[in-house]
Amino acid sequence: MGAGASFFYYNKLVKIEAEQKMKEPRKVRLHTYGCQMNEYDSEVIAGLFERDGWVLTDDESEAEVILLNTCSVRQHAEDRVWGALFELRERAMRQPGLVVGVCGCMAQAKADEIARRCPHVKVICGTRAFNRLPELVARAAQGRGSVIDTDMSSEPFLANLPQKRRSRLKAFVPVMRGCENYCAYCVVPYVRGHEASRSLEEVLAEVESLARDGCREVMLLGQNVNSYRAAGVSFADVLREVAAIKGIDRIRFMTSHPKDFPDELIRAMADVPQVCEHLHLPLQSGCDRILKMMNRGYTFESYRGLAQKIRGAVPEIALSTDILVGFPGETDDDFKQTARALKEIGFDSAFIFKYSDREGTSAYELQPKVGEEIIMRRHAELLKLQEKIGMEKNRKLIGASPEVLVEGYSPRNPERLFGRTRTNKRVVFGGGGDLIGKLVYVIIREATPLTLIGEEL
Questions:
Q1: Cα 239 from Cα 67, distance rounded (Å)
Q2: Cα separation, 29 vs 62, whole angstroms
Q3: Which of 71, 169, 329, 420 is the least crowded, having the fewest Cβ atoms under 10 Å away?
Q4: Is 246 exposed, middle or buried, given 0-12, 13-18 or 19+ CB atoms closer than 10 A?
């Protein structure tokens, strides 16, 4: 074969390979950081890209688009994102067609800084623009430079957006977004915007669709679900209406603010069988002076009274909470009051966080700051205390036979199943795959601070 023929066949082969590559589905890698609302937003983002013909992949090396859906509540969450972005810089230089995007709370709060420090980031999408994300990616892919959309003037109409759920068995359903409490340490009102409640009809339509698809448990979400208001409907009304949907066996919700927890919501928790006996009720501090500086709107005494009232109405309830260690000006005595509060309330679990300055919040200007070593010591002390409390709580369940919704095989031991009780305790036990998706009773034989271990009854 002559040189001319060889050149012809080589060009033909290159053309065929290029055409085949064009026919292959485009792939996107989506990383999610942060809260349940971020997880829900990622499900919508995944649904939007699939609708446009993209394929979600876990293999970052084959992705044409890499998106980071971010959190900005703590410095640690932001540090993880910065680290990931800097790791992607070299690949973006080697692969000019790669689109790296940042969306969510950190994008909303630090769009200019991201653009300045990471010029390889081509898309920056805020918390109320994620429904436009595929369009932003398409514009960036055309080589028009970085595309930034942090407009907060409108809320995405969720009823019209597709979703790619992580699980058919359990689902997140937002009932409202935004926050207007302006706690001194919290950036959420600035990155999520004003409160906006979905209509009851829209919420019910989403839950009904989930139930038809086999969903058995829903988590109703909001930065403060107590603030839900839509056409005179309260959040307690939402619980009762969702419970009437056939196929939904369990209803959970978060988060509730202690300052405005109405009696009608407590009655709904007690009266509606589908509402699970678990409540996440952030305390943040057991010291009234610190609570006032935080702008939390309640005292420890009022919080304790609320916890007692809820336990009186729902005796089996398990309470979980958030604690913030090292708020500016927190003294040793203030910290000891928080430790006493942890013991006195007796939480089943607690998320214990180290304070970090959030620019734009009122606490950012407060002095004196607590030293990092002191914060770390207090954090470790509370973790150890809560581990002891959790162990005591879980040991009392040995011999009990709680109802468990079986979610799948245990990631740590694929020969065992795992699920959660109505009180949101993780249970690991032996059984076959035919139990996945079912409600079973498990007799508890052993306990750790975070997990119950048993066997099917």
A1: 34
A2: 9
A3: 329
A4: exposed
Residues 219 and 179 in one domain: yes
CATH number at residue 208: 3.30.750.210
> Are 74 and 10 in a shared domain?
yes
52, 62 Cβ separation under 8 angstroms: no
What's 43's DSSP letter?
H
CATH code for the domain in which residue 32 is found:
3.40.50.12160
Radius of gyration of the chain (CA): 25
Task: Looking at the structure, tell me whether residues 122 and 199 fall in a common domain.
Answer: no
124 three-class SS? strand
What's the predicted TM-score (pTM) here?
Answer: 0.91
**Residues 37 and 137 occupy one common structural domain:** yes
Residue-range definition of the domain harbouring residue 184: 167-276
Sign of the four-CA dihedral 100, 104, 106, 112: positive
CB–CB of 171/39 below 8 Å? no
Total domains in the fold of the chain = 3
Residues 6+ apart with CB under 8 A from 5: none
Domain boundary among 214, 246, 276: 276
In a 10 Å sphere around its CB, with 0-12 CB exposed, 13-18 middle and 19+ buried, how is residue 233 labelled? Answer: middle
Average pLDDT, 10 consecutive residues per value, the chain (457 residues): 50 48 80 94 96 95 97 93 96 93 97 96 95 94 86 80 90 95 96 94 96 97 95 97 98 97 98 98 98 98 98 98 98 98 98 96 97 98 98 98 97 93 98 94 97 95
Q: Is 357 a domain residue? A: no
Among the listed residues 287, 302, 218, 220, the one whose alpha carbon sits nearest the alpha carbon of residue 256: 220
Here the CATH number for the domain that contains residue 423 is 2.40.50
Cβ within 8 Å of residue 331, ≥6 positions away: none
